[in-house]
From TrEMBL:
The chain crosses the membrane at residues 305-325. InterPro entries: Glyco_trans_2-like, Glycosyltransferase_2, Nucleotide-diphossugar_trans. It comes from the Bacteria. This is Glycosyltransferase involved in cell wall biosynthesis. Belongs to the glycosyltransferase 2 family. It comes from Actinopolymorpha pittospori. Residues 13-30 have a biased composition (Polar residues).
């Protein structure tokens, strides 16, 4: 499953990344770090993770310390109701690469990831969870893939097993949504909503405003990259059951998740969503109109008109949305 979704059109940002890489000495990645800059920013949203947040930070920092990449960890707490923030504040003294961002109101993990990415100092941004579920000791491997291949803009840790909360309900729901997303983007997506990923910050910036406040932000960043021909590489990873309590509420978050996939498609490819139902309605309406005319000459039933008009309204919406998408700059 070690796949890279490649696209023909090289983008501006990728070319910028290429130029950056060409100016860097081929033998060492440390040059920039030695001068005090950060190359990798690891964004870690933390909400009520007091039992294991320190263990997670230790795991990340020891893996990064052993790598060649200069880094920072941005831990973002937005009004945890337990001791998470106090623990993070104390940890700042112990871990020189840790930066804590604290907010007084809760804004969701998506908001935390967006702000973390905006504030990141590294060219490469890593997103992960603080619940011991993702193999965060493998972060340097994700970064290395991006570092070695300038054609890749995002590396996603693709889970080979499902250990998430509400597994029985989430597995089929995720499968359906993943299939919809695959069809709409015309690509294979081994894991649509993995929480572990690394990407080029510069490439992600235009899409940050699209990120929703909650969990579906990970889906959004995948879709945004795929729709804009930024290559994604999937690296198979293991996945453990989370420590502590999940913040995922099945009904509320699954609804938002489906809505987000549809919203993304509307944002990037409205014709693909709206034209099939519109054409289907117009075809059924036309068939029904022919039947009406044959069975009762020169009379159309009101339900026939309703079907035809609905089809026409959806088609006009599709064309209008398409016009808006095409008039945008990104
Ligand atoms: N800052 C911040 N972080 C959050 C918030 N909600 C969740 N998180 C963090 O986002 C990450 C993902 O949340 P999880 O509860 O693990 O959700 P999940 O991974 O989809 O679901 P699980 O299968 O239960 O692990 C964790 O590191 C949470 O601490 C929030 O409102 N604010
Ligand atoms: Mg989790």
């Amino acid at each position: 499953m070690d796949t890279t979704v490649r696209h023909g059109r090289a983008n501006k940002n990728t070319r910028a990344a290429t130029q950056r890489h060409q100016t860097r000495p081929a033998t060492s990645h440390l040059t920039e770090g030695d001068q005090g800059t950060v190359e990798v920013s690891i964004v870690l949203p933390c909400y009520n993770e007091q039992e294991h947040v320190l263990a997670e930070i230790e795991r990340i920092t020891s893996a990064m310390d052993a790598s060649v990449y200069p880094y920072e960890v941005l831990a973002i707490d937005d009004a945890s109701t337990d001791e998470t923030l106090e623990i993070l504040r104390q940890a700042e003294a112990r871990f020189p690469h840790l930066r804590v961002l604290a907010f007084a109101n809760n804004g969701g993990s998506g908001t935390a990831r967006r702000i973390g990415t905006q504030q990141a100092r590294g060219q490469i941004v890593v997103w992960t969870d603080a619940d011991m579920s993702y193999p965060n000791d493998r972060i340097p491997e994700l970064v290395e893939i991006l570092d070695k291949d300038e054609n890749i803009d995002q590396v996603v840790g693709a889970r080979t097993s499902e250990q998430g909360t509400h597994k029985v309900l989430r597995v089929p729901a995720k499968w359906v949504i993943r299939k919809i997303a695959e069809r709409l983007t015309n690509t294979k997506i081994p894991d649509l909503n993995s929480g572990l990923r690394a990407f080029r910050r510069e490439v992600s910036l235009p899409y940050l405003r699209l990120l929703p406040a909650g969990f579906s932000c990970v889906t959004t960043i995948t879709m945004a990259f795929l729709h804009n021909q930024h290559a994604i590489h999937y690296m198979p990873i293991g996945y453990a059951k989370r420590s502590g309590t999940s913040k995922f509420h099945f009904v509320k978050d699954a609804y938002r998740y489906i809505l987000q996939v549809l919203r993304m498609v509307m944002y990037f490819n409205p014709l693909k969503v709206l034209m099939p139902p519109s054409l289907a309605l117009l075809a059924v309406g036309t068939g029904k109109a022919a039947y009406d005319v044959i069975s009762q000459p020169v009379r159309l039933a009101s339900n026939t008109l309703l079907i035809l008009l609905t089809g026409l309204i959806i088609a006009s919406l599709a064309l209008l949305a398409d016009l808006i998408v095409r008039s945008r700059t990104n």
